[in-house]
Design brief:
Blueprint: H1 12-22, E1 29-30, H2 47-59, H3 72-83, E2 92-97, H4 99-114, E3 119-124, H5 130-136, E4 140-145, E5 147-148, E6 153-154, H6 156-163, E7 171-175, H7 188-201, E8 204-209, H8 223-231, E9 235-240, E10 253-258, H9 262-277, H10 286-296, H11 298-330, H12 337-340, E11 345-347, H13 352-362, E12 364-365, E13 371-373, H14 381-394
Helix pairs in contact: 2-10, 2-11, 3-10, 4-5, 4-9, 7-8, 10-11, 11-14
The structure holds (2S)-2-hydroxybutanedioic acid.
């Protein structure tokens, strides 16, 4: 049977992750895969997570199944984290999912079972795994332009023009904050315009929020979702705890949905539960259990928020230091945009050849489209300057 299968390559991010691991150089620099790194280049377990894990180890007295939708308390807390503690929860539902990707997939399954003819509109560019993930669920895909590479900013008019071609019932995948791979986010006014377009054309938002807390703050980064939920009848959200709780390998996320009313939200959740059951049956417990403990316990919660905020602030200061260093080294303002973009990523205006040269000559790993992980930038001024010099040299 296997002889019928085509040769298969991992995607650009996974490929780069493997190449970095295999590179024997000790002075290499990983600006590839989106994981937070501290000033020592490490990705430590967050303190509140570590404490909750210790407590869980002591106290947990069963490993019995959790059920397809996971823990009700976890789901409740995720709804509060994404929609705010004051939100009207009567028509919001949540299913615990194996990571943000698992949430995306089961929600895509829900879309294809409810509306097999709908097209999911995806930003160009987007996270490279969006397209295969959504296609694997059988979804029809189309793209809308999102990024103006010449000006390193959102190409908003082109985005709106493209979405005008969507037909009623189509779905629009949006990055709730910290756009991956560009770091270029919509302004509140632009979100309002997108929301109005969705209303006018009877389109449904499907929001991927994988970096809540990495942009403008935990509450601020949920602004667009909360605003849309107030105005639109229905909505889907894939939330991830990989980045903001540092639980990457534990696979924790939530598939959230907003229905027109409580009864329709319940029906949608029951269908989601059926799709989960026929796929992986039930989500893993450990990471989600820890998230639940961190969100429920006031002291863990405060500690987590503090650590997350410190990570966010550090990434902002790295953005400023990097754009300053590039301004000095290139004698131009063409990299100033890095200072003002949001979250973990920005896209450097470099071509494939320049990116490959940086890897080969300097051990600097950047995704092939120019995406850099801001958290991987060096804190030391001299190292930042050396990085800027290496980039200036390949321009
Ligand atoms: C990324 O964009 O680098 C992360 O979301 C990790 C991944 O799975 O691609």
């Amino acid at each position: 049977m296997f002889e019928t299968l085509p040769a298969k390559q991992p995607d650009a991010i996974l490929k780069l992750m493997m190449a970095y691991r295999e590179d024997p150089r000790t002075d290499k620099l990983d600006l590839g895969v989106g994981i937070y790194k501290d000033a020592n280049g490490a990705t430590p377990v967050m303190k509140a997570v570590k404490s909750a894990e210790g407590q869980l180890l002591e106290e947990q007295d069963t490993k019995a199944y959790v059920g397809p939708l996971g823990s009700p308390a976890f789901n409740q807390r995720m709804i509060e984290t994404v929609f705010g503690s004051e939100a009207d929860k009567s028509r919001i539902r949540s299913a615990q999912a194996p990571g943000g990707s698992g949430a995306l997939r089961i929600l895509a399954d829900l879309i294809t079972s409810a509306r097999p003819d709908a097209t999911i509109w995806v930003s160009d560019p987007t996270w490279p795994n969006h397209l295969p993930l959504l296609s694997a669920a059988g979804a029809k895909l189309a793209t809308y332009p999102y990024y103006d590479a010449d000006n390193s900013s959102v190409s908003f008019d082109a985005m709106i023009d493209a979405l005008k071609a969507a037909k009623p019932g189509d779905i629009v995948l949006l990055h709730g904050c910290c756009h991956n791979p560009t770091g270029a986010d919509l302004t509140h006014e632009q979100w309002d315009q997108v929301t109005q377009l969705l209303i006018d054309q009877s389109l449904m938002p499907f929001v991927d929020v994988a970096y809540q807390g990495f942009g403008d703050g935990l509450e601020e980064d949920a602004w667009a979702i909360r605003s849309m939920a107030d105005k639109l009848p229905e909505m889907l959200i894939a939330a991830s705890c990989s980045k903001n709780l540092g639980l990457y390998r534990e696979r924790v996320g939530a598939a959230l949905l907003v229905g027109r009313n409580a009864a329709e939200a319940d029906t949608a959740l029951a269908n989601l539960s059926g799709l989960i059951r026929s796929n992986y049956s039930m989500p893993p417990d450990h990471g989600a259990h820890v998230v639940e403990m961190v969100l429920v316990d006031d002291s863990y919660n405060a500690n987590w928020r503090e650590e997350l905020e410190a990570m966010r602030v550090r990434m902002i200061s790295l953005r400023h230091a990097f754009s300053d260093a590039l301004r000095r080294r290139t004698n131009s303002d063409r990299f100033d945009f890095i200072a003002h973009q949001k979250g973990m990523f920005s896209r450097l205006p470099l071509n494939a050849e320049q990116i490959e040269k940086l890897r080969a000559d300097n051990g600097i790993y950047i995704v092939g489209d120019g995406r850099i992980n801001v958290a991987g930038l060096p804190d030391e001024e001299s190292d930042m300057d050396a990085l800027a010099a290496a980039i200036a040299a390949v321009l």
